[in-house]
Amino acid sequence: MNAPFVHTRTTLRPANLRQPDELALLEGFVAELGGSVFHRPAWLLAVQEGAGQRALGLVAECAGRLTGWLPLTEVHSPIFGRALTSSGFAVEGGVLAEDAETARKLCDAVQEYALRLSCPTVELRGPAYGDDWQMREDSHCGFIAPLADDDDEQLKAIPRKQRAEVRKGLRNDLRVTMGNAALDRAAHYAVYAESVRNLGTPVFPKSLFAAVLDNLDADILTAWDGGKPVSSVLSLYHDGAVMPYWGGGTHAARHLRANDRMYYELMLHARRRGCDRFDFGRSKTGSGAYNFKKNWGFDPQPLSYASWTAPGHETRDADPTSAQHQSRIALWKKLPLALANRLGPLIARGLG
């Protein structure tokens, strides 16, 4: 006799990120489906700890088995408003599901979930499935390339003009350090804070960097000119790839070619750690950073982003490079560094 047909259906529920068993299940699901570091609950919880933005998520299950996951950060800001983002302070994220139908159900559910939380906007750092989503595929590109087998081959893999800049940096008397101790963190924050102030954007709170370093596989590489840090980058390691995520340089870094030296040294360091790919992260299409990464021989790959705004509400604009914020950027560049470092974290924790 044939077994009776058992109807199974997908059920959706909020994730319980306070439950260790749930965290372990979600971490395993992200790894199994090849999700990014920004899909990991560990990232959400680091953002919650370091920036005060609540870690949330929606889970899809079928017959008691996890089939979909949408990581979320509840972002609140007196300047930029409220939103659910996937994921907060990330360049990737969005729905992770075994099939398109499950992905669509999660995308439908997050709209209702956002309204329940009084968040009129949902932002996905990835594609959306279903109706009512505004898609962008021309705003940002990602840059990923394989690492070479040895130091010489890595240098040869860099196009000629950029390789000449790296060689200049190698000839300069710069000291390079790696780690995540207090000295590394202080050096990185000093360099990064000056770098973003010069670009006209507020710096993230120190606590965000600390939480990421304490809870994820991450470290800091710094190039020093004598006793002064001139370039520094906080990098993430995930699934065989290194991603230089929060990096910058002082004014002195330019003539010292310290940023060029820094990224080349990171490539070598990552390979020795066992990485096989260098993920240069995302850049706004056509920007200076976009062209810089192309000069290194990386091919830009368009990224998909999706957003949803509840009827009757204006679209949230937390992009510090948008036309709406140009006057604020110009003003921020003129702030004394000490004042920018004091005010910046209060603003930047709400960017999400």
Q: What does it look like?
A:
It holds the Pfam family Acetyltransf_6. It comes from Aurantiacibacter rhizosphaerae. This is FemAB family PEP-CTERM system-associated protein. The structure is a single chain. The chain has 352 residues and is α+β, with helices and mostly antiparallel strands. The protein folds into two domains: 143 residues, Gcn5-related N-acetyltransferase (GNAT) (Aminopeptidase), CATH 3.40.630; 176 residues, Gcn5-related N-acetyltransferase (GNAT) (Aminopeptidase, 3-Layer(aba) Sandwich), CATH 3.40.630.30. Helices cover 39% and strands 28% of the residues. It has twelve helices and 15 strands. Strands 1, 2, 3, 4, 5, 6, 7 and 15 form an eight-stranded mixed sheet that branches. A seven-stranded mixed sheet has the order 9-10-11-12-13-8-14, with helices on both faces. Helix 5 crosses helix 9. The protein is globular, with a radius of gyration of 21 Å. The N terminus is likely disordered.
The CATH class of the largest domain turns out to be Alpha Beta
Shape: globular
What portion of residues is helical? 25-40%
Count up the helices. Answer: 12
Overall number of strands: 15
User: How many distinct domains?
Assistant: 2
CATH fold-level name of the largest domain:
Aminopeptidase
Distance between the termini: 57 Å
Low-confidence stretches: 1-7
At CATH level 2, the architecture of the largest domain is: 3-Layer(aba) Sandwich
Strand content: 25-35%
Rg on CA atoms, Å: 21 Å
Structural class: alpha+beta
Instruction: Please describe the biggest sheet, giving its number of strands, its sense, and whether it closes into a barrel.
Output: 8 strands, mixed
**Average pLDDT reading:** 91
CATH superfamily of the largest domain: Gcn5-related N-acetyltransferase (GNAT)
Order of helices and strands: EHHEEEEHEEEHHEHHEEEHHEHEEHH
